[in-house]
Amino acid sequence: MGCGVSSNNNVYPRPEAVTEYGKINGKHFVLKDGRVADVFLGIPFAKPPVGELRFEKPQAPEPWEKIKSTIKYKNRPIQQDYFWDRIQSGKSKSEDCLYLNIMTPNWNPSSSTKGFPVMFYIHGGGYSVDSDAKIPYENICK
Beta-carbon neighbour count of residue 85 at 10 Å? Predict the structure, then answer.
């Protein structure tokens, strides 16, 4: 006697986008109403500010040939850990933390609008607390 499970993970193929530096692919997040948001996490917008680049003006990242997977949050900045940070984030800390997260609707706007509103969020914390993971993409997409 046996048991089998069938899964079709290709219902929504992974979203792809082209950046100035190369192609990226992300993941889909299905909202409660069935609409889908495209989520891209950890897109590099500068070279890691380590070694000779530490405390220097950010430099453009090196272009990449293969499609870069952007499905996970990257490192959070090195800063003081507070109790809730250790529990909530679960992310590593590093000076290599110059990454961008993008969430976008995967449906057309209504005919009465030209597009969607854009929210540009830079977390606070006075260079001592917080990171991009404080507000999960699931909450932003809602």
Answer: 19
**27-54: average pLDDT:** 93
Q: Which residues pair with 69 in a beta bridge?
A: 25
pLDDT value of residue 112: 74
Mean pLDDT estimate for the chain? 82
SS (H, E, C) 61-119: CCCCCCCEECECCCCECCCCCCHHHHHHCCCCECCCCCEEEEEEECCCCCCCCCCCCCC
Cα separation, 101 vs 136, in Å, equals 10
Q: Is the pLDDT of residue 138 over 90?
A: no
Q: Tokens at residue 64, please?
A: 């990449």
